[in-house]
Amino acid sequence: MESIFHEKQEGSLCAQHCLNNLLQGEYFSPVELSSIAHQLDEEERMRMAEGGVTSEDYRTFLQQPSGNMDDSGFFSIQVISNALKVWGLELILFNSPEYQRLRIDPINERSFICNYKEHWFTVRKLGKQWFNLNSLLTGPELISDTYLALFLAQLQQEGYSIFVVKGDLPDCEADQLLQMIRVQQMHRPKLIGEELAQLKEQRVQKTDLERVLEANDGSAMLDEDEEDLQRALALSRQEIDMEDEEADLRRAIQLSMQGSSRSISQDIPQTSGTHLTSEELRKRREAYFEKQQQQQQDPPGHLSHPCERPATSSGAPGSDPGDAMSEEDMLQAAVTLSLETVRNNFKTEGKK
């Protein structure tokens, strides 16, 4: 439909748009139509003057505004009719008794001009198809042959005056092209006012949507920031807990070492300034563990003889404790003693 000439509404120049859409080109301008209107006004004035320039009717006629045009751009049917006479075209009222007696099928005509109040528009056949070339539409509207008669009848019901254009219209590119092909219209054009309102509504909806998206982006950023903060706090708490655990562990080791050193120092004689050999140190350690084992085996109140040796794990009295206890047993006993010392120290500090 790009080849179809279609002027859209500008101001109140619908008569100009109607004529140019009918002729399929920029044939008339407001200046040319104004010239035709002034010519018609002069012809009417001359007819009124025939009754006398001093008559009341003539003076009243001079005081009245033009009936063929106004400042808004409206032109009368007389202006349109005279403009078409230049091209040898004539207008006949569609619903007049003279035309209705001819019983002509509308699809056999070539074009119609429709008028309601001060609006004019053209319905024309291009090639083998009909088109509504109303300047208030965003583009040409395809009308099927079966719908044409119903469309014209609907316009009459709405109060339109319909005129049949008689005569040969000038050749145009759209008519030649559509003689060879038929077009299909997937979407009907909207009224310009509806399109503007729809565009405005879309802009408003777009603006509202942008606001919502901006708000959502802001809240999303806030949510992300809050999540990052919560993550940082959680990591901080974990680090603090780890530091507390490490501090507790260091404290327990320190207390254990202190408790072990105190216990050993109380039970093992000090050798101030004397260097002990590994063998002497081993014997002293065995003597310490022998004493601890004897204290665990003796019942309360029983005093063991200083020279009496406790029974070994094999039950043979007097055997060497160094031979009876392995290094692993001694290490296990040392660990047990260390843990008992730590527990006792914790209890003591807890009471304080």
TrEMBL record:
GO cellular component: nucleus
GO MF assignments: cysteine-type deubiquitinase activity
EC code: 3.4.19.12
Sequence segments annotated as region (Disordered): 257-277, 289-331
Biased composition (Polar residues): 257-276
Key words, A-Z: Coiled coil, Hydrolase, Nucleus, Protease, Repeat, Thiol protease, Transcription, Transcription regulation, Ubl conjugation pathway
Josephin domain: residues covered: 1-180
Gene Ontology BP annotations: protein deubiquitination; proteolysis
Annotated catalytic residues: 14, 119, 134
Protein name (database record): ubiquitinyl hydrolase 1
Organism of derivation: Ursus maritimus (Polar bear)
